[in-house]
Amino acid sequence: MKKIAYFKVVLATSLVWVFLDIFLLLYFSECNKCEDKDRGLPAGDGPGVIQKHHEGPGEMGKPVVVPKEDVEKMKEMFKINQFNLMASEMIALNRSLPDVRLEGCKTKVYPDNLPTTSVVIVFHNEAWTTLLRTLHSVINRSPQHLLEEVVLVDDASERDFLKRPLEIYVRKLKVPVHVIRMEQRSGLIRARLRGAAASKGQVITFLDAHCECTVGWLEPLLARIKHDRSTVVCPIIDVISDDTFEYMAGSDMTYGGFNWKLNFRWYPVPQREMDRRRGDRTLPVRTPTMAGGLFSIDRDYFQEIGTYDAGMDIWGGENLEISFRIWQCGGTLEIVTCSHVGHVFRKATPYTFPGGTGQIINKNNRRLAEVWMDEFKNFFYIISPDKKC
Ligand SMILES: [Mn+2]
User: Looking at the record, which segments are called Disordered (predicted)?
Assistant: First the structure.
């Protein structure tokens, strides 16, 4: 009889523990308390997020397949950042990527004494996982002695996880990461200028907040600037799918141009530029304009050319403005084909601007035309007669 009583006590205690475990599991696995606006922040930063073994979703840049039962939820979450946030949350913050460089790039040797760079990243309501994946890829794929620091500039985000949780997270990283806050929504240009002013590397590298740097991305950029500090350099921008987060190599056969509406456009690299490089595709391409999100520039040269047009608002036109400025102030703008950085291209902007996007881009483009285009500005006004004030 004593044995049975003993057994009952053991069973009862075990059951209590089992129920407690189930309760804890259910409580923490369901994110009951998450508000919609805080989506994008994973439940923790434990081992599931930083992966050591590269077997999880999205590794080697593979597309992520969302389970059928989650498709409706996935579509809802897509609206928050205009990319597949659910897929992004499934991928490790330090996922592996393929080496997409041309064979000739993999064996290039760069000088030891390259200038150091500060990486400046502006964000506004960015998702936790895309921002942190950008950061980890910068830190993990840059030689530490070349990376002075990372400066994150928060352009007045409203999401709580981008406040203190972000500051706590970046403290444990092996590279100094500073978080700077704009007091009010200031736009890309003024936020970048603030980040640049707060940084100290000889080179300033601007990146978007949803990028992934690949192996060997930094050295070829810095080598060009060391060779000639009036050279402003862009990597090849690879495409990270906004639907699946698949990593797709960009082409070294396109460069930046513009149309007379002053929209940035990609065009095939012309034969004269192929000839100038004697057909060697691993050599940098001179490009008329840059896409804008990703480039490196010598700090002093940036000052000499007068930085950006700080009168431009929010976003749009600033990439052509700085392109025209570089060429007309005696500099050179290049796409360094041995440097690859991925960027999540979106079909729609998730950002809202006071007065609407159209109005802001028109204003910025008018400034661009009036300052840098002399009589060529007339093409712009003929194509877009409503833009003239
Ligand atoms: Mn972007």
Answer: 42-63
Token pair 């500051």: residue: 167
How far apart are the C-alpha atoms of 37 and 55, rounded to whole Å?
Answer: 30
Q: Give me ligand 1 centre to Cα 367, in Å.
A: 23
Instruction: List the pLDDT tens digit at each of the 389 positions of the chain.
Output: 567 888 788 777 887 787 777 666 655 543 333 334 444 444 444 333 565 557 899 999 999 999 999 999 999 999 999 999 999 999 999 999 999 999 999 999 999 999 999 999 999 999 999 999 999 999 999 999 999 999 999 999 999 999 999 999 999 999 999 999 999 999 899 999 999 999 999 999 999 999 999 999 999 999 999 999 999 999 999 999 999 999 999 999 999 999 999 999 999 999 999 999 999 999 999 999 999 999 999 999 999 999 999 888 877 889 999 999 999 999 999 999 999 999 999 988 887 766 777 777 888 999 999 999 999 999 999 988 776 55
Closest CA to 285 of 326, 232, 329: 232
Q: 252 alpha carbon to ligand 1 midpoint, in Å?
A: 20
Distance 304 CA to ligand 1 centre (A): 27
Q: Which strand (E) or helix (H) includes residue 285? A: strand 285-286
For residue 251, the cross-strand partners are none
Q: How far is the CA of 102 from the centre of ligand 1 (A)?
A: 25
Helices (H), strands (E): how many in the chain?
Answer: 13, 12
Residues 333, 232 contacting (CB under 8 angstroms)? yes
Query: Is the torsion defined by CA of 152, 39, 213, 231 positive or negative?
Result: negative
User: Which runs of E-coded beta strand occur in 147-193?
Assistant: 147-154, 177-181
- Which of 110, 94, 191 is CA-nearest to residue 146? 110
CA of 293 to the centre of ligand 1 (A): 6
Which residue, 284, 342, 285, is CA-closest to 97?
342
Centre of ligand 1 from the C-alpha of residue 20, in Å: 45
Per the CB < 8 A criterion, the answer to whether 217 and 249 are in contact is: no
Amino acid code (one letter) for 74: M
